[in-house]
Sequence to fold (485 residues):
Amino acid sequence: MTYLRSARRRPLVVAAVGAATLGLLAPAASAAPADVRYAPGAPGLGDPYFPDLGNGGYDVGHYHLKTAYDPDTDHLTGTTTIKATATQNLSRFNLDLYKLNVRSVRVNGREAAFDRTGRHELEITPRKGLRERSMFTVVVRYDGVPETLSGPIVFDLPYGFLHTRDGATIVSEPNAANTWFPSNDHPRDKALFTIETTVPRGLKVIGNGRLVEHRSVRGEDTFVWREDRPMATYLATGQIGRFDVSTATTGKGVPQLDAVDSDLASDPNVRATPGWTTRATDELAGYFGPYPFTTTGSIVEHNNVPPLNLENALETQTRPTYESPPIEKGVVHEISHQWFGNSVSVGRWKDVWLNEGYALWTEKFWAERHGGPSALESFKQIYADPPQMPEPRPRFWDVVIADPTRDQMFHRAIYFRGGMALEALRHKIGKERFLELTRTWLADNRYGNATTEDYEALAERISGQDLDAFFKTWLHTPGKPPTWW
Ligand code: TRP
Ligand code: ZN
Fold:
């Protein structure tokens, strides 16, 4: 799903996408003239950190993820229906899918040939070429036990599809969405989602967006969630377990749904999480501009489910996922991500400091607004004594924020030096200008993607200053920058 930049044109785009989702636009192209040339879509989107994530040649508008999961066997059975638009004449195209067994693929209702190539590619050849700008539908039937990822990218902890004691926790940033559904698995292709999951009776499923249907048939329960604003694949979730669910509406009128593992419901921090979420959703809207989504909330998961840990939180869209017990600044961090990361997403994964730096900066700004130290004081302390990570990771000041390498993309420096760079910029251009820059950034790029270079250009435009040297020092060069205050 591609959103155009110009604010004036955006409503038209939204209308077109809505119509496309409802199937009101032209379906597949009719018979092609004989001289039309078709070519394969690229198997990647050219992201240097993940060359084979995402695919070229089409743009997904909607995913319908229909799955059934059995916690006793860890087995997932799925049917993914993708509505997409070709961006070139396609002879074939790829989806990303890691392991799992593909049973069949249909394109526009007809059986299509498929092949498994590379580490996580599903290569699909429809009977007929797909014309540029035509809409097409892909249905993939698949099953298997989703493999949990682990490794240096995410704190050396397991992530992706975590098989828990009585269900599953799904936290896919950056590259694990394709371990549970076939997808164009890169934030550059956002789409609307319907997440429909069937589980044994007694379990619940908590997804993104709003619960639009719940049905009980013969010992099984099905939950249908719908996210009606563009979402990157890594932010999609459908957590399975025993949950206590509560609902509310924020003061500014945003519907809220909070879910907590039933065993944790008495923990004081867990009980405070819905209130923190309400406050962060409304208060951050006052600083940054309207909350970008149509619902908010939280999912609090059991920690230490052997042998897997979440040990963290992920900003799953509209409904962040927390390890228990959440803390207030963690909630502020994940709600901040709804603007920084979820509404405005990275253009390439090396831009991730724009997510984590802003979310960390928001924590310090929040403290400043609530009787704590000023953000400047907080960052002076971090400057004096930055958080280090265990060997063999690089030392804090050695990480280049705007291009940290794939395995350091969640290094503490991305968070803390990233946030510090923003505080230094705030000092340099002034507090009011900095907030204006932030609001303009969010408004101009809403539901889209943007890069570090885009941010630098906007900062120069809004401030009227030449910031090349500043950004070079803070974002593009290793080493401790000179004091900025
Ligand atoms: N974005 C998360 C944060 O808010 C960190 C993170 C990245 C993460 N990938 C993850 C957390 C996977 C849990 C699972 O800082
Ligand atoms: Zn974060």
